[in-house]
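Bench log, entry 3. Co-assembly request; chain sequences pasted below exactly as received.
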Amino acid sequence: MEHQYFSYDNKIVKYFAYATLFWGIVGFLVGLLAALQIVFPAFNLGLEYTSFGRVRPLHTNAAIFAFVGNAIFTGVYYSMQRLLKTRMFNDLLSWIHFWGWQLIIVAAAVTLLLGFSTSKEYAELEWPIDIAITLIWVVFGWNMIGTIVVRRVKHMYVAIWFYLATFITIAVLHVVNSFEFPVSMWKSYSVYAGVQDALVQWWYGHNAVAFFLTTPYLGLMYYFLPKVANRPIYSYRLSILHFWSLIFLYIWAGPHHLLYQSLPDWAQTMGVIFSIMLIAPSWGGMVNGLLTLRGVWDKVRDSAILKFMVVAVTGYGMSTLEGPLLSLKNVNAISHFTDWTIAHVHIGVLAWNGFLTFAMLYWLFPKLFNTKLYSQKLANTHFWLGTLGILFYAVPLYWAAITQSLMWKEFTPDGYLAYPNFLETVTQIIPMYHTRIIGGMLYFIGAILFVYNLLKTAASGEFKNNEETSAPPLEKAPSKRIFGEAVHSWLERKPVLFSIWALIAILIGGIVEIVPMYLIKSNIPTIESVKPYTPLELQGRDVYIAEGCVQCHSQMVRPFRSETERYGEYSKAGEFVYDHPFLWGSRRTGPDLARTGVVTGKMYKPDSWHFNHMLNPQGMNVQSIMPPYPWLFEKDVVIASTPAKIRVMQSLGVPYPDGFDRQSEADLMKQAGEIADGLVASGFQVEPQKQIIALIAYLQRLGTDISKSAPNPNLDIENPKHSGLPMPLPTDANALAAAKTIYDRSCIVCHGALGEGNAIGPNLTDGYWISGGSPKEIYGVIADGVILKGMQAWKGQLSEEQMVGLAGYILSLQGTNPPNAREPQGELVEN
Amino acid sequence: MENNSKKVKYDGKPLEYDFDGIKELNNPIPPWLVYLWYISLIFSAMYFVYYHIYKLGDLQDAEYERQMAKAVTSVQKHHEESGQLNMVILAGDEDMADGEAIYKEKLCATCHGALGEGNAIGPNLTDNYWIHGTGDVASVFDVIKNGVPTKGMTPFKDQLSDEKILQVSSYILQKLQGTNPPNAKEPQGVLVE
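Structure output for the full assembly:
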């Protein structure tokens, strides 16, 4: 048969390879910086742009999308042309893909450091970049599928199956998880709220691991490992089985990131069992890789490349066993929110992705530059540095994780937390953090040797942009399955059909888990007292998001004695219905903040504490590793952005009253003024429009919704008994919350935090009243006092509105039955 | 047309196709991997049936209730065994050392100064002016235990046992009261003679 002559595009491969080297170094370096920051707060450099909350997402995004991403494209562009015996479909698309991807990375780096973040892990980028990613991903897919269509090889090799699955699934994940409603150019709110947002995010987050870090690398393994070892793939049937079972099962496992959290039990169970079922399919890839090396084990000793590959594949096997084990609820109860997760992902990325990338590029550079590797010895040194680096990184973190988790959970025999001060559990593991830095440095030094070795190799060789080659044209085959042709074999020559089946396989799990979360109301039981954030709190929440507080602080109290004792009541699904996006977090470098606003709670700190603490954390706790946030005291909240934010929230279904956007700025200033006045009264210098005020407002709101009682019949303004007041009693949550602040400032000393009364003042929660129990009488007592009995008159100090608010708040306490209530005094009044 | 299809029956030789020189064998899947697969499927099915069909295991809310009930029983048992606390000022060296350690570790020092002199947040503990109570051991004990949340005083009842609160109260009364530390905050509250 006549051969057709064409060339492989090596230039695009070279560019992606150089980008991999560059971003790899950047990603590792930023990781090192983050590791240093955890031990030495000074490495936050006192700048908002370089504080840990912004650096960590930069590290994860650089490692995943810049380093691993470019490595994937390097390998895919090299192997696909050769596996399909054709040049890439379209050079222009290749170059749009290359430059588009690099621009996205640069834009990501800049915006993340500026604090433009959606806060969703590995999906932090704001909406304009999300759109750019979608477009570039389509360009990649178009180029890839085009190449498959014009191929000269009838069947698609297993590597191509994995590339296709990667393209399809990442497209679906990215688009679905990135649905967000723009407020402005660099700010948006997730269309999902609370539990739904968490589920969609971890469906995405988990499968970003599956389909960005795993499937494309399995594809690369299937090409480069047999090439390097010069051995046939061990088992074709194993390839088929583990490919389909892997992509079908992986997509279900996302909820294992939310075990013991406010996710319905059935969804958690899906996360557990599908993770367990994933062990064998994942190991199928490892087994097929390692058994392919049968017969060349003697070469492994001499070849650095094969050594990298063996450790990569073994690391893959370890991570994919460890992942399912961490998904068992009893293991997760110990591991979650600790450094165990961090150690786990680093085994995956440093060993599996990192080492396979190193192996691939050590093999590829001599091929591309028609020369020999500059130094085998350096490559071997790199291998040992890298391996030691991984061990020194991961082992101390496992140790740290278990130590800290046990400290969190330990109780004294008389029923107290053995380590009630969270900071003690952090100080304990600082030595492990030091060792982790050494591990990271070893790995980084290895990577420097790697880059040097490859650049020397490139310099010594000769690069051709186009590699001339030839192949016979593809014979036309009947579309239908031929008699005797195996089904899968037929599918391998039908790329469109293959893709459709892959799409179906990956859609099922997501649909079964996500759709019921919307349609079945019982999945997220409503809590009446949960109300939308005030405008100031909403702005404060955005400060919290921009500063990346969620990187270190969870907002999710799990139903464990050790957590309810430390933080307060465990979190309920209904609390998060207005949280666009959710902020549950995944690591507790600092304590959980879900209940930090509950005045009677265990986590409560007054405004003044937060103020001092954000300015100088080490001033409050010498050993604290939290960075200071001085810029929050200088920067203003953009108050003018409030109405737009309220309107977007309304469009997303948050029930602010009609026209509330127009009052929102005034409302914000009022609340900010009250907080600032309180701080000024305590001797602090602050202006109400500063970001710190908004952040304090948000922190003081956290957890208060469910500690408030449900709307009380006593507050019925239609009730004629309520007449005689200067204005109607408050009914909305904001007014009651404002009244509570006054109560907490002025009344609590004598009537108790919950109105239970104490040695001085009477109980306000029973139906008994000494000086009358109608709203008017209560108002009168507040305004004029009962001087003889010690009750002060407040009318000189509080406005009429404030006093009516207080009367309303006191009535709302009726019937709450607080602990340690004082015995009833006075007369029973039926309201 | 048979050569259009990859043969899937395995005879020990590579399959007919090769991809850029990569050949494929078609070895049987190692039996241990197949068994692992079956075991994981059976485990998962049983897990689902156990928790969601027959509802034999506790789901997380029930598990929490059980955990808390167990804790109450064990704490009660401990109290029965260890007896009641006597509300008197302690003076032993060991108690003072423990009290001092708690004072410095549990962040008392953050708001009341290392020497009890007070600072922008908390009042002076060395003078004999008291905002809450009359400076007797019971009222100091009460303030530490239950806190004064609105004034910023954290309740320590969840963090310190009664014995430890008594130790730190005694430390304050024995070792800090009456000292004259530098930078002392102005008196607040009521003078107690």
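The radius of gyration of chain A is 31 Å. The CA atoms of residues 231 and 292 of chain A lie 6 Å apart.
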